[in-house]
Design brief:
The chain contains three helices and no strands. The longest helix has 23 residues. By secondary structure, the protein is an all-alpha fold. It has one domain. The protein is flat and about 55 Å long. Helix 1 packs across helix 2. The termini are far apart.
Length: 91
Amino acid sequence: MNEACGGLTVRNAYDLKALGMFMSGEVRKGERIPRRDPPEFEEASSFVEAITRDGFLGTALDDRNQYGPVAMMVLLLIVAAITGSVIRILG
């Protein structure tokens, strides 16, 4: 029940049809979240080849190959090291 809007109404919390205008893709039977089109993806034989071919940010942020999660963790470590260094210098 939703009491915040003034009246008592019963809504299905998992009904995402109202979001159809905001989300692309189709909702298949038994699924709750609309699917999106997969990004372009080409496999690489190694992490170095993936970085060389697609670039570091292309691999980490755009998921252009299977090493996207690894590159994202490396990016996280770089950002954490920079943030920690700045805090240490200013603190």
